[in-house]
Amino acid sequence: MYHLTILTHFAAAHNLLNYQGDCENLHGHNWKIEVTVNTEELNDAGLGIDFKILKKHTKEVMNYLDHKYLNDLEAFKGISPSSEHIAKFIYDRLLESLSPYAVHLEKITVWESDNAYATYTQS
């Protein structure tokens, strides 16, 4: 099994709903995102998927999030835009856009700081 990972980032503001503490107030993060796919097979060039393709699809999702107030986005209406929900949102968007390729979207990891992250993977 081959595992391929790219790193990217976005900056945005949010506030957590139903949270008793500082994070209930408006604040921002420079989120780091890890996108990991896996595959059993390589193409004729010896690639599971061209990193350019993976980056292109990921960038489309990052453009939706970058420099936004996440609470205002349709994707987070009625839910708290936590790292957990952001990870699932990115996963769902990439799952759809990567479906034509011979890879399985393994996991999305969303780092909200240097020492705190959330990972979403389908069971």
UniProtKB/TrEMBL annotation:
<feature type="binding site">
    <location>
        <position position="29"/>
    </location>
    <ligand>
        <name>Zn(2+)</name>
    </ligand>
</feature>
<keyword id="KW-0862">Zinc</keyword>
<dbReference type="GO" id="GO:0008616">
    <property type="term" value="P:tRNA queuosine(34) biosynthetic process"/>
</dbReference>
<feature type="binding site">
    <location>
        <position position="27"/>
    </location>
    <ligand>
        <name>Zn(2+)</name>
    </ligand>
</feature>
<keyword id="KW-0671">Queuosine biosynthesis</keyword>
<feature type="active site" description="Proton acceptor">
    <location>
        <position position="23"/>
    </location>
</feature>
<feature type="binding site">
    <location>
        <position position="14"/>
    </location>
    <ligand>
        <name>Zn(2+)</name>
    </ligand>
</feature>
<feature type="active site" description="Charge relay system">
    <location>
        <position position="112"/>
    </location>
</feature>
<keyword id="KW-0456">Lyase</keyword>
<protein>
    <recommendedName>
        <fullName>6-carboxy-5,6,7,8-tetrahydropterin synthase</fullName>
        <ecNumber>4.-.-.-</ecNumber>
    </recommendedName>
</protein>
<keyword id="KW-0479">Metal-binding</keyword>
<dbReference type="GO" id="GO:0046872">
    <property type="term" value="F:metal ion binding"/>
</dbReference>
<comment type="similarity">
    <text>Belongs to the PTPS family. QueD subfamily.</text>
</comment>
<feature type="active site" description="Charge relay system">
    <location>
        <position position="67"/>
    </location>
</feature>
<dbReference type="GO" id="GO:0070497">
    <property type="term" value="F:6-carboxytetrahydropterin synthase activity"/>
</dbReference>
<dbReference type="Pfam" id="PF01242">
    <property type="entry name" value="PTPS"/>
</dbReference>
<comment type="pathway">
    <text>Purine metabolism; 7-cyano-7-deazaguanine biosynthesis.</text>
</comment>
<dbReference type="InterPro" id="IPR007115">
    <property type="entry name" value="6-PTP_synth/QueD"/>
</dbReference>
<dbReference type="InterPro" id="IPR038418">
    <property type="entry name" value="6-PTP_synth/QueD_sf"/>
</dbReference>
